[in-house]
Amino acid sequence: MRRGRGWWGGGSWAGYGPWGRWSRFFDTGEVRLALLSLLESGPKHGYQLIKELEERSNGIYRASAGAVYPNLQQLEDEGLVTSETRDGKRVYTLTEAGRAELAREKDRVDEIWNRAEKWGVWAPSAGPEGVMVATTAALVMKAALSAVKRSGGDAEFATKVRDILDRSRREIESLKPQA
Hints:
α1 packs across α3 (65-77) and α2 (46-56) crosses α3. The chain has helices spanning 30-39, 46-56, 65-77, 96-104, 106-119, 128-150, 155-174; strands at 44-45, 81-86, 89-94. By secondary structure, the chain is mainly α.
């Protein structure tokens, strides 16, 4: 994991919308690496790549044509993929130069898909309703960790913070939706 990333596999929650890092699944340059890695298994058209990006991210990242097609064009311009029209669809194929790029960036590609796998446990909660509470939950976590750190290792203080969080968790779990 790269320096500066939190335990959830992302960076700062601030500045990236209501889900923090979640609304920006890929770091700079990672979409192109993800596309290359998806083409490693064989030729695909753009829509297949869009769907596979969503599947591989457990539904958390929903690629847009505006994110995918310019990257595919860049990859083609760089000679890392080729394209041809088949059955009315533009199909992209990885070149030997693309395979060499994947080999050079293997650790980074592995990190992308490892992060996607870790985030998969959150996917069922990542709908619009989950987005509504994610920032607040992250801020509560930050406040709790900061308070414990400021206590200078006071175990009694840490226990009080944990008790507050446990009470909140139990109260949330006991909530029943209105009919």
